[in-house]
Amino acid sequence: MYEVSGELIVMLNYLVVVKVKERLAVSKQAAQKFDGARFNLRKLNELEVKQKYQIEITNRFADLEKNVDEDVNRAWENIT
Q1: Neighbouring residues of 53: CB distance < 8 A, sequence distance ≥ 6
Q2: What is the distance between the alpha carbons of residues 25 and 19, in angstroms, rounded to a whole number?
Q3: Against a cut of 0.70, is the pTM above it?
Q4: pLDDT tens for the chain, residues 1 to 80
Q5: Of the residues 34, 56, 65, 79, which has the fewest C-beta atoms closer than 10 A?
Q6: Rounded to whole angstroms, how far apart are CA atoms 13 and 24?
Q7: What is the predicted pLDDT for the residue at 32?
Q8: Per-residue confidence (pLDDT) for residue 34, from 0 to 100
Q9: Domain limits of the chain?
Q10: The dihedral sign for the CA sequence 62, 66, 69, 75
Q11: Can you give the chain as a three-state secondary structure string?
Q12: What pLDDT does residue 16 have?
């Protein structure tokens, strides 16, 4: 096997620690850059906004279910 000096191990360990800290700092910066104004959840307290949101979400899920049903039926027709 290779003989590794203690100094080399310390240096490699230091480089690993620096790389991990760098990645953590980058992810922290990305989290801080998140634009909170994009999702203003306080607006959901207003009745009209809340109802519009509920209708929009319901329609999205209905469209998804419809697409899944069509895809399954089309796939089944191709099998038989």
Answers
A1: 44
A2: 10
A3: no
A4: 567 788 888 888 999 999 999 888 887 777 666 655 567 788 888 999 999 989 998 888 887 777 666 676 777 777 76
A5: 79
A6: 17
A7: 66
A8: 61
A9: 1-34, 40-80
A10: negative
A11: CCCCCHHHHHHHHHHHHHHHHHHHHHHHHHHHCCCHHHCCHHHHHCHHHHHHHHHHHHHHHHHHHHHHHHHHHHHHHHHC
A12: 92
Measuring CA to CA, how many Å separate 1 from each of 4, 6, 12, 13? 9, 15, 18, 20
The residue behind tokens 């089309």 is 74
Tokens of 49: 């906004």
The C-alpha angle 12, 18, 24, rounded to 5 degrees, equals: 140
Tell me the two tokens of residue 1. 């096997």
One-letter identity of residue 4: V
Maximum alpha-carbon separation in the chain:
72
